């Protein structure tokens, strides 16, 4: 009886705190929080209670990593039966959509499957790049050159013609950005273009319009960091119709200074216009004019099953939705599983752009969960207030960041900010001014010594050594990371489902500040170099 009373006091204090104007983490008596959020099995009565399961204590307690792992095994089995992947536009993704849909419908949800057009792009094999004249040479795949993502297929042998290059350290290359750069360009040649200023899509389409049979874009070379190979993309809307390769700066310089150079370039890819799907469901109860939205991308890359990226976010979101099927939120909770994130955030962008102004205003917060079980993890919270990386989210985003920070503090777990880099599905929500936040446990970046001391794991190694690879399977999940970040997801979602006052107050304060300013308040606009996991310029 005493433990049950402690639980009720904890739940009551959280709900009370949620209704106050500032986010102040409650300090419960004794070890009630530690006991309540421990990994052991929760009281079944709690998780079946429509009132208690939807609270900031009850929902994290009921969301168990072991149950999420069972859902991840389902996604792994789907990938295994479908050529090892769940990439958008392929059968493994359709099977993933079917699994989530059936699970939600069994839980009593009405599910909306939203189709949208996108350009499916899959490398069939490595590319080829050879010098034919004046001296034969073979260039090394993924060392000297790679594909620009979304390149069209092609096999081209032709002379190479440099286009408005600007070489050397500190250069300000605008190569290929203007149609005038291609004045006198010989039709049928391969355009040799330098990175810089405008996006890759524009450079390649300008080359195609000038009659180029293929285009090679080499890195800019203005700094040491912009000399090697990188993941770059032409974008989902590329319409050049010619193959495009990306090469190192040093090779680009050498080719530009080789008279009589002819190259053979081969892009062995599949690229076709098709459609795929988002999946959206929402709680039966809650204010439909004050929506808390939580989302995760469901698709994997072509190269692997995508169990951490992003089966982890998708499976935890699904488990949370099932737990909330009979909850009594004050605000409606909407869940979304996005398609074609790996193709450039296509599904989430389509969804946001399809909303009316009124529908956008009804979304009070968007919470994004992309990779929350990395094997060499850190606990990262999107930097909504800009205190760590300088770029603030829309008003209300700082409050969401503080909410996540409060949870990790209550749990006694370290956490830190992660940059708003527009590599995941919050990007379009940011663009239209919807407050957002979310969690991330790390991808290809290297864990520092300081981070290894905070979180454990191996310094000098990627947070996820299997990022975008075939080994991103169920063995690539850290259960502790999945438990902590899944609970943090549940905590923030349930809190905001009961009250969005912390967001409302921040939005009102920002509006008042803008109203009272003596000079025009200018919204900072990003000049994005990233789109999903690739550079666009």
From TrEMBL:
Residues 156-254 form the PA domain. It holds the Pfam family PA. CDD domains: M28_SGAP_like. Keywords: Aminopeptidase, Hydrolase, Metal-binding, Protease, Signal, Zinc. Residues 278-490 form the Peptidase M28 domain. Residues 1-24 form the signal peptide. Belongs to the peptidase M28 family. M28A subfamily. This is M28 family metallopeptidase.
């Amino acid at each position: 009886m005493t433990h049950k009373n402690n639980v009720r006091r904890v739940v009551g204090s959280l709900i009370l705190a949620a209704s106050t104007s500032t986010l102040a983490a409650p300090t419960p008596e004794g070890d009630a929080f530690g006991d309540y959020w421990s990994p052991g099995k929760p009281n079944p009565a709690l998780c079946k209670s429509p009132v208690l399961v939807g609270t900031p204590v009850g929902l994290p307690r009921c969301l168990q990593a072991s149950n999420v792992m069972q859902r991840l095994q389902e996604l792994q089995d789907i990938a295994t039966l479908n050529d090892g992947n769940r990439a958008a536009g392929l059968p493994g993704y359709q099977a993933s959509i079917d699994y989530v849909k059936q699970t939600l419908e069994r839980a009593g949800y009405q599910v909306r499957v939203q189709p949208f057009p996108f350009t499916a792009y899959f490398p069939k094999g490595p590319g080829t790049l050879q010098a034919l004249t004046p001296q034969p040479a073979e260039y090394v795949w993924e060392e000297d050159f790679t594909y620009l993502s979304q390149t069209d297929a092609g096999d081209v042998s032709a002379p190479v013609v440099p286009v408005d290059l600007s070489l050397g350290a500190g250069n300000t290359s605008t190569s290929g950005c203007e149609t005038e750069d291609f004045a006198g360009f010989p039709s049928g040649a391969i355009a040799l273009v330098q990175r810089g200023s405008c996006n890759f899509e524009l450079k390649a389409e300008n080359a195609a319009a000038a009659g180029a049979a293929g285009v090679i874009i080499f890195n800019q070379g203005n700094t040491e960091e912009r000399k090697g190979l990188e993941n770059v993309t032409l974008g989902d809307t590329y319409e050049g119709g010619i193959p495009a390769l990306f090469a190192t700066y040093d090779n680009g310089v050498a080719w530009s200074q080789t008279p009589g150079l002819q190259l053979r370039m081969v892009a062995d890819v599949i690229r076709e216009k098709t459609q795929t799907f988002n999946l959206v469901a929402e709680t039966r109860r809650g204010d439909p004019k004050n929506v808390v939205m939580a989302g995760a991308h469901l698709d994997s890359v072509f190269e692997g099953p995508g169990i951490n990226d992003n089966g982890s976010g998708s499976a935890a979101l699904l488990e949370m939705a099932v737990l909330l099927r009979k909850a009594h939120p004050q605000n409606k909770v909407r869940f979304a599983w996005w398609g074609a994130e790996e193709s450039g955030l296509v599904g989430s962008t389509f969804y946001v752009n399809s909303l009316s102004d009124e529908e956008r205003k009804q979304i009070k917060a968007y919470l994004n969960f992309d990779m929350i079980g990395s094997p060499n993890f850190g606990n990262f919270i999107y930097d909504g207030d800009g205190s760590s990386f300088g770029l603030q989210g829309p008003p209300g985003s700082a409050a969401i960041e503080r909410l996540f920070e409060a949870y990790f503090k209550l749990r006694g777990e370290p956490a830190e900010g992660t940059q708003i880099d527009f590599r995941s599905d919050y990007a379009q929500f940011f663009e239209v001014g919807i407050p957002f936040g979310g969690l991330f446990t790390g991808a290809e970046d290297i864990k520092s010594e300081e981070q290894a001391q905070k979180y454990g794991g191996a310094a000098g190694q990627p947070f996820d050594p299997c990022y975008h690879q075939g080994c991103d399977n169920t063995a690539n999940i850290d259960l502790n990371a999945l438990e902590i970040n899944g609970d943090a997801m549940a905590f923030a979602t349930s809190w905001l489902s009961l009250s969005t006052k912390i967001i409302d107050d921040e939005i009102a304060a920002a509006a008042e500040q803008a109203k009272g300013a003596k000079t025009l308040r200018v919204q900072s606009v990003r000049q994005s170099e990233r789109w999903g996991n690739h550079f666009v310029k």
